[in-house]
Amino acid sequence: MKSIRLKPGKDRSLHRRHPWVFDGAIAKGRADAGETVRVEDAEGQFLAWGAFSPDSRIRVRAWSFDAQQRIDAAFFRATLARAIALRERLAIASNGVRLVHGESDGLPGLIVDRYGDTLVAQFGSCGVERWKDTIADALIELTGCPRLYERSDTSSRELEGLPQVTGWLRGDGPTALELHEHGWRLGLDIALGHKTGYYLDQRDSRLACHEYVRRLGLGEMLNCFSYTGGFTVAALAGGASHVTSIDSSGPALEQARANLALNGLDPARATFLDADVNASLRRFLAEGRQFDAIVLDPPKLAPTVAHAERAARAYKDLNRLGLKLLRPGGVLLTFSCSGGIGVELFHKIVASAGLDAGVDAAILQRLGGAPDHPTDLTFPEGEYLKGLVVMRKP
User: Fold this and answer.
1) Is 167 buried (19+), middle (13-18) or exposed (0-12) by CB count in 10 A?
2) Which of 73, 142, 204, 376 could join 104 via S-S bond, C-beta 3.0 to 4.6 A?
3) How far is residue 274 from each of residues 236, 253, 328, measured CA to CA in Å?
4) 276 — phi, psi (to 5°)?
């Protein structure tokens, strides 16, 4: 077994059970991509077993902090079984569930979502790439699903020195599927859709949108970065009189239209714009338009803390425009999925946007990832999704 020796004083994060070892912390030692290594402190004492990534700044990702643990097929099967058992206990009322959430489930770099009888997996690190076949076999056995599709086409693969890969790992068949949640039907394509096909992490936020529209009697809504219209369906099902959905993807908007039909919703109550969100918001402002509810769910703008300053300016401008377009008594649901933007910073950004907009507003609720996207206590980076429900005071 190869060993990685850390520099003096660089072992504190591992003692706190944080799973990452950065390249600058390593004094000596090397291994092949994905190979299991023994991580030691400067005196040679055991700290963790981990997977080595020779091309990544995150040079080692920890599998286990137990010196007696063997990293083998049995380890992966048992770790996957624990993750799947947790989701079964959660009893999520949807056929779309995240079964494995990377580091927070003890499997750094691995994402597994289930859509009905089909699994979709992303192998985002050298460690899980090396054990891909073992993991695939265990997933099929533990879930009873006959099909497993790979969506290893994320930017993290490039940072790991791995090529992007997509396609069937086990089984085959159509990639167009249907998600059921909260009594709604949402079409998706696991080969072409974002992430593994859909944003399962926003499941509870879509329900929150539905409930605010219903309880407060919100009429006209603007859904920005609408993708395939999950929030649009939620709002219309909650009684919104009209929803304008904006996205820069024509195919996503076509699926959004189809999702209205799947749910028996009147297409006359919806407008779909294939356009730039920022330009559209400025145009609406110039036209004097206002809305009772607005959703701002932009793509990731700050993948790391290094990108936070520039991203903060973009988030602030977006929220400033959104708050200006919100009617008094209206509700803004605003989100950041950027790992480099923490919960406190996001709050400050939206508060600053409110000041610049000249809007008096209050936070009604904080939102985050659905329960099947847990955040391990030792891995705060896992809390990437954060949201605020903000009411413009009447």
Assistant:
1) exposed
2) 376
3) 20, 7, 28
4) -80, 130
**Closest by alpha carbon to 146, among 177, 166, 116?**
116
Compute φ and ψ for 21, nearest 5 degrees. Answer: -125, 120
- Per the prediction, the chain carries an average pLDDT of 96
First to last CA, the chain: 66
- 155 pLDDT band, cuts 50/70/90, is confident
Torsion sign over Cα 117, 188, 343, 12: positive
What is the residue whose two structure tokens read 């709050």? 347
With cut-offs at 50, 70 and 90, classify the pLDDT of residue 246. Answer: very high
| Confidence (pLDDT) at 308 | 77
Per-residue DSSP letter, 201: G
Q: Burial code of 143-165, b = ≥16 C-beta within 10 A, e = fewer?
A: bebebbbbbbebebbebbebeee
What is the distance between the alpha carbons of residues 7 and 351, in angstroms, rounded to a whole number? 42
Place of tokens 């085959």: 172
pLDDT the model gives residue 305:
67
Backbone angles phi, psi at 295, to 5 degrees: -115, 125
Active site residue 126: no
